[in-house]
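Journal club prep — side note

Before the paper discussion, L.F. wants everyone to see what a predicted structure for a comparable chain looks like in token form. Sequence:
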Amino acid sequence: MTAPPYWPQACAHLAGQDAVLAQLIAQFPGSVVKSRGAALETLQRAIVGQQISVKAADAVWHRCVALLGHPNDPAAWLAPADEGLRACGLSGQKVRYVRGIAQAFAAGQLHPHRWPTMPDTAVLTELVALPGVGVWTAEMFLMFHLTRPDVLPLGDLGLINAFKKHYGAQWKTPTDLRGWQGRLSRHAAKHWVPYRSVATWYLWRSLDPHEVGY
């Protein structure tokens, strides 16, 4: 796994713009997003990680790898019976999703060789057409496979909770989820661009001792 080359510059920029992030960056030295370099594996890991903790997702993933052997091979996801995948900890819905994604790769419906040079919005459009891949999952792919520097996953509750924890004292009145998303979006636009992915990473780390990985 390799770290993105922009990371040191991003940390310096964010530390100069945001006192909270300056503290978090200092608290987690050497902690960086790392690409696994395997498009299918990253997408499948994102599906596995939907709506469960990082620790639980890792456990399910390791059982899948033990069953499949080669998680970046579409055929490996299509070969076992549904019961085998369910025994790894996948719900019936997630089994349908991982099979559908594997089938799309096997059938050549995607263009992964073009993704590195495509803008974020174009990659998102292609990915959300896959079964089970919503905006959040596609954003995880942008961050963890393509290591795009300026992704802000506003639908991620962990990010929202971390933002409330570290920045909530700035506001006296409570607000709903949409209100916090708006505050986060405005703060990020003012202080974090063009490294919103990096800011998101350190806010995640402030809540969970386990590094996120897809």
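L.F.'s comment for the group: The chain has twelve helices and no strands. Keep this in mind when we get to the figures.
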